[in-house]
Structure formats: structure tokens, C-alpha cells
Amino acid sequence: GSLGPRRNAFAGRGTRRRKVKGMEDDILPLVKNIVPPLTSKKHKGQDGRIGIIGGCQDYTGAPYFAAISALKVGADLSHVFCTKDAAVVIKSYSPELIVHPVLDSPNAVEEIEKWLPRLHGLVVGPGLGREDLLLKTVIEKSKARDIPIVIDADGLWLVTQQPSVIQGYQKGILTPNFMEFTRLYEALPMDSSDYQRSVMQLSVAMGNLTLVLKGEQDFITDGSKVYSCNLEGSGRRCGGQGDLLSGSMGVLAHWAHAASTAGMIRSMNPSVVAAFGACSLTRQCNSQAFQRHGRSTTTSDMIQEISSAFKKLFES
Ligand SMILES: NC(=O)C1=CN([C@@H]2O[C@H](COP(=O)(O)OP(=O)(O)OC[C@H]3O[C@@H](n4cnc5c(N)ncnc54)[C@H](O)[C@@H]3O)[C@@H](O)[C@H]2O)[C@@H](O)CC1
Ligand SMILES: Nc1ncnc2c1ncn2[C@@H]1O[C@H](COP(=O)(O)OP(=O)(O)OP(=O)(O)O)[C@@H](O)[C@H]1O
Ligand SMILES: [Mg+2]
Q1: What is the ipTM score, two decimals?
Q2: Does any domain span residue 266?
Q3: CA 155–ligand 3 middle distance (angstroms)
Q4: Which CATH number characterizes residue 94's domain?
Q5: Burial, 192: exposed, middle or buried (Cβ in 10 Å; 0-12, 13-18, 19+)?
Q6: What number does the ligand 2 atom closest to the CA of 282 have?
Q7: How far is the CA of 137 from the centre of ligand 3 (A)?
Q8: Do 27 and 227 touch, CB atoms closer than 8 A?
Q9: Which of 29, 198, 227, 289 could bridge to 192 as Cys pair (CB 3.0-4.6 Å)?
Q10: What confidence tens digit (pLDDT) does each residue in 18-32 have?
């Protein structure tokens, strides 16, 4: 499926979002179940080594937000694979991140590939720019290693051009905002007038891939049922909230698949549990940060709330 003519698939049709009851009560207990216990027996890296692919001259904030969020949610190590000029900037934001200036090197694929055996989760796209061939190969190689992959932002651009790159991958999650969703939806021949139905149709067309349509309420589906997350956030929509979301989802996806393998969540698709957890957390961070900072709230303020939001949602 390539791109059709540029138009808004939802123009003039039933674009109002029906407010449906959130599913916090059903799914939050499952999210609590996947959080690994903190014990003195563990070694560094066991609770997650996450890779973020993104960061270029124009965008250094997005990969930083995603990578630091992964750490603050509880990953042990967070790697950023970005271009050379972005690397210096990202390193100087934070000594906590491991930053690889490889995306614009001639052997970028090999440089990333050698880290793949050590990664538990991959987040592709925040601040990436539009880099098709490299990305396609990295996604293929990560799938071959059975690594959970969250695709966001510019990573979704590639999926729009070539849905087959991720189609049917059970450990894949797409996190489009409204614009990104519209592009994806137009790339595949479908017709629906309602968000919940169209997100479900798109998931089925993508081989039951887990999809998160972000918005006033987040719609999460793997094609069998639509779950809505409408935990209260705020009216503040600063840039970067989606990066907090995708970074935390990278860790939660690793935890959820590990828990599922261990037989700890039987009743639900682990990708859906991870997606729901990350949406809830992002919205809770937004709400808490807004209580302190109001209209001045930025993504950095939200990141400062991760610790207490996580406790409130998943450890109480
Ligand atoms: N500080 C940073 O470095 C940031 C970088 N970002 C990066 O910027 C790049 C482009 O991301 P964009 O999200 O801007 O790309 P898009 O191309 O999806 O968005 C294009 C435009 O659509 C608008 N839009 C978004 N949601 C909408 C909605 N619900 N209804 C109507 N219009 C809507 C946006 O304001 C934007 O102007 C990505 O690589 C992304 O990761 C963003 O993550 C924001 C923060
Ligand atoms: N109208 C809204 N009300 C409440 N929460 C929202 C609303 N829109 C988005 N969100 C929340 O904000 C988070 C990020 O969604 P958003 O649509 O801002 O992503 P994005 O456009 O990709 O952001 P970014 O600027 O990081 O690229 C999601 O978890 C979503 O739940
Ligand atoms: Mg985004």
C-alpha cells in the first residue's frame, strides 16, 4: 500500500469521538503484574536495556525525552542511536544516556546491529527525520531477534510507505498522533467513519499489530477489541509528551513480554498491557505537572513526575 491522494480521511464524516468508559479498573492490575520486583539479586541490565533510534540536527529533544523516560520508568540502561551532530547535544543534556553517533555513518546498520543482541526493547522514530532504507533494515533485524519494537513519529513515515515492514509482528506497537494516524489510514484501503472502528480496522489490516491512537482519549487495540485510556490529563499539549509515551512504552513492552513468557499475564496481549500502562502513565504525569505549572508545563516538568505517577498508578 502506497500513499493515496492527500486528503483527510475523516473530513466531513463522523469525526466526533465518543466518550467511552475507560478500562483502568480492568487493565491497571495487569500492568502492576508486569512490573519486575526490585531485589538485591539482580545485575545491571536485567530490568531493561532500551534503544532509541532517532535524533538528528533538527530534533534532539525527542530522543532525549524518550530515552530519559525509559530510564525513569525503570530500565537500567538507555541507548540513543542518532546522527553525529545530535549526539554531542544529547550527551550534554544528560550523562545518564549512552549515545551512539552512528545514524549518518556509512556503516550505520552494522553499528546498530552489533548492539541489538544486548537490547530488550527498541523505540524507533522520535526525532529521526525521514530515513527510509536504514530503518527498514534495522527493523527487519530486530524482528529476527524477537525484540519488542515501538514505532513512533518519523518511524511511522516509513510504515506509511511500506506497511509490510512491521505487518503481523506481535511484538510491534505503533503510536500515531492524529496526523500520523490519518496518513497510515490513507495508505491502506479502508473505509470507516468512526475512530474506534477505523483504529481496529487498521490493526487488522496490519496483521493484528497493536495500535495506539493518541488523543483526548487514547484508543488501544490489537484488532480484537478497542481499549480506551481516558485517565484525566490536562488541557496542556506541549511538544514531547508523545516521546515520554513511546520511551516508557519501550520498557513496559519488554516487561510485559517477559511476564507473559513467565506465564504471569495470560488473559491479555502483552503489547496491549504495555501500551495501556504507558498511556496511563503519560496522562498521569501530564495531570500532576499541570497542577504545579499550569500553562507553563513542559515535557521536562512531566518527566519529573514519572517517579510519583508510577508509584501512584502501579505500586499502590
Ligand atoms: N523537542 C523535540 O525535539 C521534539 C521533536 N519532535 C519530533 O518532531 C518530528 C515531527 O513530529 P510532529 O508530531 O510535528 O509531526 P507531524 O508531521 O505528525 O505533525 C505535523 C503537524 O501536525 C500537527 N498536529 C499534530 N497533532 C494534531 C492533531 N491532533 N490535529 C491537528 N493537527 C495536529 C502538528 O502540530 C504538526 O504541526 C518527529 O521526529 C518528532 O519526534 C516532537 O516529538 C516534539 C518534540
Ligand atoms: N486532548 C488530549 N487530552 C488528554 N490527553 C491527551 C490529549 N491529546 C494527547 N494526549 C496525551 O498526550 C500523550 C501524547 O499524545 P500527543 O498526541 O501529544 O502525541 P504527539 O503529537 O506524538 O507528541 P510529540 O510532541 O511528543 O510528538 C498521549 O499519551 C495522550 O494520551
Ligand atoms: Mg510524536
Answers
A1: 0.90
A2: yes
A3: 10
A4: 3.40.1190.20
A5: middle
A6: 29
A7: 22
A8: yes
A9: 198
A10: 445 567 788 999 999
